[in-house]
Amino acid sequence: MTTLLYEDFARAYVTEVGSAVRRMLPRGPEAVDLLAKATNGGGQIRAFGNGGSSAIVRAALLQLHAQAAAAVDDSMMSPAALAYSAQRDYRRVFARSLARDIDRTGLVVVASVSGRSANILEAVRLCAEHRVPVLALVGGDGTQMQPADGMVWASGTTDQQISEDAMLTVLTLTAAALAPGAQPLAARAEQHLHALAAVDTELLGAFLREATEAVAGAIRSRHRIYVLCPDGGPLALAGEHFAHNLHWDAPLGVDGVRPPLVVCDPSLADMSAILNDHPDPAHGVRYQLSGAGPGDVVFLLAYDPAGRTTREAVTAATAAGVQPFLLHRDGPGGAGARGLRLPGVNDFALAALVQSVAHLLCRTTRAALTEERSGPAAALSPADLMARDLAPLRELSDLSDNLTR
After folding, report:
1. What residue ranges of the chain have pLDDT lower than 50?
2. How many other CB atoms sit within 10 Å of the CB of residue 88?
């Protein structure tokens, strides 16, 4: 694939994300009112999502808690607990968690591109029984879900990745509107859309080409892929989604391709142990990258590459013989890293831009892996890449409600 193809695809994708956001924004004031009512009423705000949608709704709750002092509980259990509960009763895993304090819940936020996920629908049904309002973000036209109270906020597209990017963006903008002294939603939205349009797709295309070749090579040769956010915050949730997409969506169903070895940010158990034993924020990422070696791929997500933890991460990756790929907002890229600077938006909005880059990379990686297995396709075009929706294969989704999200 040529650099021009990557560039044209990036431009088409970013444009579609902007269009989806614009379609959703007219209902933004309704969503602000729902969140404000729940926050001012003292009720707890809960959120549920599967796969990448989990990171999206938790990012919104993190912002509500940090900027508007909202009482939140994302109810996202540890992977071990969730797997244990889901194996026993997948359909009710979220509803059972919600039922414990449904009388103290002022609002439930759910995200499901399909709008048909069994565990999401069961949680919405419980909310209807107890007259708890729901803010439901779904793909398509939104008719697949009908909460008794609240609103369905539809992306207007069935493309999973574009829907997810639009959902994260509008939730980020809406939650920001509740912060004391915040700009009006309309003004903040226009600023973000301007930043989205300002993404340098020429530089992004070149970055994608190099990153795609590196990731596809790592998957083929069974090398590790690291996705790390040394400074934490909203980017850490974007990193979780980034790693999820690289591990599951990019190679899923490609004949002869095994799941890649993806290393993400430390878990809560890891991080609490690291800080308890060694109170240096850079220690965790140094420790992780001490296991990296030539042929591995490292993605570093940063607010400012001049920050100490990011500089330490670049140094550790370089010492391991790995050239890291650095996605950042501020300052020049770190020496020794292949950097891409994104427009100057706030920390939470930056996570939405990084998520879009991750989705682009997943599609181009999937195309590269497929091309290798089946032989070069005739003149792959940006339209072909736009059509490669990475929703876990639709034919798999038809087999069980458990596989829709």
Report:
1. 378, 393-405
2. 10
